[in-house]
Amino acid sequence: MRELDWWVVGLYMALTLAVGLWLSRRARGGLVDFFVGGRALPWWLAGTSMAATTFSVDTPLYVSALISRRGIAGNWEWWSFALSHLVLIYLFARLWRRAEVVTDVELTEVRYGGRPAAVLRGTRAFLFAVPINCISIAFVMLAMRKVVEALGLLSAFPEWLPGDERLWAVIALSVFVLLYAGIAGLWGVVATDFFQFFLALAGAIIVAGFALVEIGGVTELKRQLVEAGRGDVLRMVPRPGSESLPFGTFLAYLGIQWWAFRRSDGGGEFVQRLSASRTEADAEKAAWWFVWLHYVIRAWPWILVGLVALVVFPDLEDPDLGYPLLMLRYLPAGLLGLVVASFVAAFMSTVSTQINWGASYIVNDLYARFVNPEASAERQVGLGRLASIGIVVLSATAAFYADDISTLFRFIIAIGTGPGAVLILRWFWWRVNAWGELAAMLAGFGIALASYLPVFAGLEFGTRLAWTAFGAAAVWVPVMLLTPAERPETLDAFYRRVRPGGPGWAAVRARVGQAPDRGLGISLARTAAAAMLLFGAMFAVGGGLLLESGTWVPALIVGVAGALALRWLGRWEREGGSAGVDVV
Fold first, then answer.
1. pTM of the predicted model, to two decimals?
2. For a surface tag, which of 71, 128, 321, 384 has the fewest beta carbons within 10 Å of its beta carbon?
3. How far apart, in Å, are the Cα atoms of 105 and each of 391, 516, 528?
4. pLDDT for 230-251, tens place per residue?
5. Separation between Cα atoms, residue 323 and residue 225, nearest integer Å
6. End-to-end Cα distance, the chain
7. Closest by alpha carbon to 71, among 220, 194, 225, 232?
8. What whole-number distance in Å separates Cα of residue 12 and Cα of residue 566?
9. Beta bridge mates, 277
10. Cβ(26)–Cβ(37) under 8 Å?
11. Are 80 and 264 in contact (CB under 8 A)?
12. How many CB atoms lie within 10 A of CB 218?
């Protein structure tokens, strides 16, 4: 890092803090203003913020390491979540906005009633706000710590500071994020997310461009990979018998992970953005914009960098470091500072969101619900800022002792697997009750933790997912059927508020006399067409960048067919063609 690089990074951080302070006035109105932006976010801002949240400093490092260990096909570890995000667009985005909750946990006492609903809400709020959220933030902080070390930025800290310099690097960045996230609330987070996302994307493109030019282009990259005996890394779908990515794990990603995970219906900070959107239509558009940015636009620069790192650093002991080492090797002064600023931007966008989201659980779903329901708006916002400090302290401590990004990522997925099926079914079947959801969450959490005991050390990840998902089902299904259904008045109130489709609400619909907002059948048809469009576009872009005509041509055909199907379904629905299947 030269002087010019430091000036670029410093200017970026000053600008971010200024925006946060300027928007702090929007966070003074109470919980709705502080945590869901007064429900006034435009779709493009909400969608970009969702994308920025999932684009952190850990992501390019994680993808680069995936390429080294499992090839391009290893990305199905996160590509598989595209299925749940497509379902989010057409099945859940409008429902979440219509529910008008501050957090997704608050929905439990809208969907269910009585003491079981209160227990479920409090349990979920604590688990998600503290252990799970802090592990997630630690995951991001660990990646930032590695970048700081790899780029030699520890020299910026004075020698008289006690303890390990790596800890001070994490603390310094976390405190800075806390300043604007704690002061400005959601508006400060999403506004800075907007330019942080595009800065981070530009940084990834710059690194990929310089690395490819230096190595001689895509053709030369592919030739060197084949000569090194690593030609299989270019495969986008693994073959049966593959050693790098076991086919059983691949099938578990596609067949289990996306629907069994705790965010199968959106969840967490995504719901926060959808609830903050201006209208239901804006919520749906925001989800589409996020999916397009997340899967089509930004994935391939990371993948290209990972492939180059595999050639330039074939024997790298820690594959997480391939990305920052390429930055040091190829970027000139000024551009290096810009890309480092993009890493800081990616770090800040995710951590600020996680802090604000975790604090919303602590204030809205624990303090205001169980401790002091009459607390003033000023007191609640103040507690939210105090909770933000506690979350940062716990997360920074965990990050200092963690070591491997990929391991933490899989652990987060594992402990969140189990309740996904219940979270989907509760929207479309009246019989799902609070006890069933509570049993699914606790069983999944417990089974996942047990699978990490030494006796199961050799358990393949796909098998671990299957045991957790179906083991949890073996618990929650009997619990649900053996405990009383929700009271009719609770079900009727939920249906009137949200108006979900599907035959599972037929009895309630007959009592209430109100049609659903959109039929389940047309929503599923749109989801299938959207899957063709999305995956077709993803692999058309990837095949084009890698000069693989056998990939991009058929992928483009599939994508165009999906787009035409979506257009036809939209016109058919507008003309009343779905009126006969509005219940289904």
1. 0.86
2. 321
3. 18, 23, 28
4. 888 899 988 887 767 888 888 8
5. 17
6. 60
7. 232
8. 41
9. 41
10. yes
11. no
12. 16
